[in-house]
Design brief:
By secondary structure, the chain is α/β, with parallel strands linked by helices. The protein contains 15 helices and 15 strands. The strands form three sheets. Strands 3-4-2-1-5-6 form a six-stranded parallel sheet, sandwiched between helices. It has a six-stranded parallel sheet with strand order 9-8-7-13-14-15, sandwiched between helices. The chain is elongated, with a radius of gyration of 23 Å. The site of adenosine monophosphate has 17 residues, from strand 12.
């Protein structure tokens, strides 16, 4: 078992470096559009602050190439000030004398938020000089950044090797949810997969054989499976190199009595025209699941005891191809099954429709949760000490 913050003793007055995932969406004025990722780490921050330690918080935000004023963590620090009045200070640097001065001035109970880690390219390179600098700020390291736990970066991997460490409540909860869901699934276990990256999801489907009762496949990845089943897919997105593997998975799944349901109709583009069709002609591009598929999927979702959903069922960014994803979100929210939703687009659909409180677990990490579902371990968690 990994050490958690509850196992850390005598941290009062100590300097604790906390890695969070505050990769929140911002509008062009720097206002936070969705603070879910911040609120998700509040229990960890509150617990550490209650221990009266000196808390130094770091995170990445977006994918900056060097300094980018539109990706500053300042709005995040302002958001935290509302939760911890008079305790939070923002440091506009990640490394250097200003950071060291601010840390030296901290009193027990203070919270210091550092600037975006990714303004320094050494963060993603897990560069040793950057690791040493970050490690020099603190006596203890805590990781609560589930969203990047599948990455080996300086602030979540390198630093953990240099300091006594623990995981925060958010990571602890995410790990438990996925472990329970795969070890003791409530039956029938219905998995829903969408999105375009077939390669990423093949392993996931392989790992779910023997655990899930039904798998519903939509989105761009469905066309590789449809082709593997000998069905015409027109000009829809496909990974031809993976068709044979998809065929093997379908055979294996059917042998194991796992029901795999593929789309039976589509919303497609025929040149510039949106068409609804059961069969994709050579000049059509399938971009969303159709009405009959939505109905089929909704019936399975209704019967489920547990649902895991990752990935949009269509080209969700385009309003014309959003219905499949929205209707599935609605069916999952309405279902009485234990529900877990992961991945930016699926979580986005749930939030847009205001269904967040109807889902048992909205994961804060799409990529990290996929790795767990593939049965893999996460490097940033592997390096945390065990009890
Ligand atoms: P992923 O990162 O694998 O979860 O894929 C998400 C992306 O899949 C989104 O940007 C969607 O627009 C895209 N997508 C979903 N369905 C389709 C489709 N039928 N054709 C092309 N792209 C799709």
């Amino acid at each position: 078992m990994k050490r958690t913050i509850k196992d850390l003793k005598n941290i009062q007055d100590k300097r604790v470096l906390l890695r969070c995932d505050f990769n929140v969406p911002l509008d062009k004025y720097g206002d936070i559009l969705d603070a879910t990722r911040i609120t998700a780490s509040i229990p960890t921050i509150k617990y550490l602050n209650d221990q009266n330690c000196k808390l130094i918080i770091c995170s990445h935000l977006g994918r900056p190439k060097g300094y980018d004023k539109f990706l500053s963590l300042f709005p995040v620090a302002v958001c935290l000030m509302k939760y911890f009045p008079n305790k939070v200070k923002f440091c506009p640097k990640v490394v250097g004398d200003e950071v060291k001065r601010d840390i030296a001035k901290m009193k027990s109970g203070d919270i210091l938020v550092l600037e975006n880690l990714r303004f320094d390219p050494r963060e993603e390179e897990n560069d040793l000089s950057f690791v040493k600098e970050l490690a020099s700020y603190a006596d203890i390291y805590v990781d609560d950044a589930f969203g990047v736990a599948h990455r080996k970066h300086a602030s979540n991997y390198g630093v953990a090797l240099k300091l006594p460490n623990a995981i925060g409540f958010l990571i602890e909860k995410e790990l438990k949810v996925f472990e329970d869901a795969f070890k003791n699934p409530k039956k029938p276990f219905v998995a829903i997969f969408g999105g375009a990256k077939v390669k990423d999801k093949l392993l996931l489907i392989k790992n779910i054989i023997g655990k899930a009762d039904t798998v519903l496949i939509g989105g761009g990845m469905a066309y590789t499976f449809l082709l593997a089943d000998g069905i015409k897919i027109g000009k829809s997105i496909v990974d031809l190199e993976l068709v044979d593997e998809a065929k093997d998975i379908l055979v294996e799944a059917r042998k194991a009595n796992m029901k795999v349901i593929l789309p039976v109709d589509h919303v497609a583009l025929k040149y510039d025209r949106v068409v609804k069709t059961n069969n994709l002609d050579a000049d059509m591009v399938g971009l969303d699941i159709g009405k009959r598929t939505i109905k089929l999927f909704a019936e399975e979702i209704k019967k489920a005891g547990q649902i895991v959903w990752n990935g949009p069922l269509g080209k969700y960014e385009d309003k014309r191809f959003r219905k499949g994803t929205f209707m599935v979100a609605k069916a999952v929210a309405k279902s009485s099954a234990y529900s877990i939703v992961g991945g930016g687009d699926s979580v986005g659909a749930i939030n847009t429709l205001g269904f967040a409180d109807k889902i048992d677990h909205l994961s804060t990490g799409g990529g990290a949760s996929m790795k767990l579902m593939e049965g893999k371990t996460l490097p940033a968690i592997e390096v945390i000490d065990t009890l």
